[in-house]
Write a structure and sequence with these properties.
83 residues; alpha+beta; 4 helices
């Protein structure tokens, strides 16, 4: 999908979500200049092996279920805010 820089700036939130589904091409002076895409797609293009490893690891992590009666780990709890 091609979109002008001005329109991208005006609709940043909406178009950022769109870029997760498909890359956006942003031209300047009539020539394609930038591409906005998801990080997953970028990783897939720049290092296909790493992207597959990350996807596989994420899948394994999602399938892990905590033991019955166990407490959430420190990593899964929100950090308290201090003032």
């Amino acid at each position: 999908m091609r979109i002008s820089a001005a329109e991208f700036a005006e609709r940043f939130g909406e178009l950022s979500d769109e870029a997760l589904a498909q890359p956006l091409i942003i031209p300047r002076h009539g020539r394609d200049r930038l591409v906005v895409m998801s990080l997953a797609k970028y990783r897939e293009l720049t290092n296909p092996g790493e992207a597959k490893q990350i996807e596989s690891a994420n899948g394994r992590l999602r399938s892990v279920k905590p033991a019955a009666g166990s407490k959430p780990s420190a990593m899964s709890r929100p950090v308290p805010r201090t003032r």
